[in-house]
């Protein structure tokens, strides 16, 4: 199969993300039907499914040779036989969407050979569109962005759920971070790319659709991105999960890895 055209694929993702935002806007703050997924997998709304259907139809019709992995589509492991796949989260931050917060996002990525080659994270209610290709800059609404150059853990502005600072994850006392939180992992990674925060940490097993697009944006903005074991992430895996994720300013990334307890690799 011919290698994907990163620029053309990015343009396609941007168009699809904006269309997803139009759909989301019709449901946001309009009491969409909501229910809980099985096995405690969190909430889903009719907006998630409407956007997923649109993205599947639009993206797969444009690139019929690409595989498909989405939070809201039953996984078809035939994607494992494809060199290039779409990995999408129709709404990342569904709880924020339900609660009327504008910080949910649409996260769309193209992955080839396990690496993200094009990614978009779009927050339609804030009109913030983060984008990157594997060979180009990371941008916010078309303007280049740059990650932080922080090097000290003490006082570093870190996006992380409170549980990630529990002593069990650290060799000594948990670092004295200035902790912040956003509901969408894709948005957290994009904010690292923007330089608004110094690091993002999650030690939980992490679904690929939550982080594929954002990881490329953070990386192309100059951050170092790895799973929680310190290994550069690879996508379109059989389990569709990564062993956590750390994205940070280069020197700070090394300091975080050095302070954290060894994290079990994905099985």
Automatic annotation (TrEMBL):
Superkingdom assignment: Bacteria
Enzyme class name: hydrolase
SUPFAM superfamilies listed in its UniProt record: Carbohydrate phosphatase
Assigned keywords, A-Z: Hydrolase, Magnesium, Metal-binding
Single GO biological process annotation from the record: signal transduction
E.C. designation(s): 3.1.3.25
Tagged with keyword Hydrolase: yes
PROSITE patterns with a match to the protein in the record: IMP_1, IMP_2
Co-factor(s): Mg(2+)
Coiled-coil spans in chain: none
Binding site for Mg(2+): 71, 89, 91-92, 210
A GO term, aspect molecular function: metal ion binding
Protein family according to the UniProt entry: Belongs to the inositol monophosphatase superfamily.
Listed name of the protein: Inositol-1-monophosphatase
Protein species of origin: Pseudoruegeria aquimaris
Lineage of producing organism: Bacteria, Pseudomonadati, Pseudomonadota, Alphaproteobacteria, Rhodobacterales
């Amino acid at each position: 199969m011919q290698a994907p055209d990163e620029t053309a694929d990015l343009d396609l993702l941007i168009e699809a993300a904006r269309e997803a935002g139009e759909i989301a806007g019709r449901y946001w703050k309009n009491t969409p039907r909501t229910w809980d997924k099985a096995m405690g997998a969190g909430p889903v709304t009719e907006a998630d499914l409407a956007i997923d259907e649109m993205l599947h139809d639009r993206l797969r019709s444009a690139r019929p040779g690409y595989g498909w992995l989405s939070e809201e589509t039953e996984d078809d492991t035939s994607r494992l036989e494809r060199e290039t796949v779409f990995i999408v989260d129709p709404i990342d931050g569904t709880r924020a969407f339900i609660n009327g917060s504008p910080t949910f996002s649409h996260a769309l990525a193209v992955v080839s050979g396990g690496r993200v080659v094009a990614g978009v994270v779009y927050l339609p209610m804030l009109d913030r569109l983060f984008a990157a290709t594997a060979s180009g800059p990371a941008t916010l609404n078309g303007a280049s962005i740059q990650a932080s150059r922080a090097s000290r853990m003490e006082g570093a502005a870190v996006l992380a759920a409170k549980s990630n600072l529990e002593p069990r994850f650290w060799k000594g006392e948990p670092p004295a971070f200035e902790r912040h939180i956003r509901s969408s992992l894709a948005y957290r990674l994009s904010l690292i790319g923007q330089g608004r925060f110094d690091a993002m940490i999650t030690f939980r097993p992490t679904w690929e659709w939550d982080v594929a697009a954002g990881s490329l944006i953070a990386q192309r903005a100059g951050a170092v991105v790895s799973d929680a074991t310190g290994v550069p992430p690879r996508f379109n895996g059989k389990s569709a999960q990564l062993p956590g994720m750390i994205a940070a300013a280069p020197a700070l990334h090394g300091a975080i890895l050095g302070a954290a307890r060894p994290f079990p690799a994905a099985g």
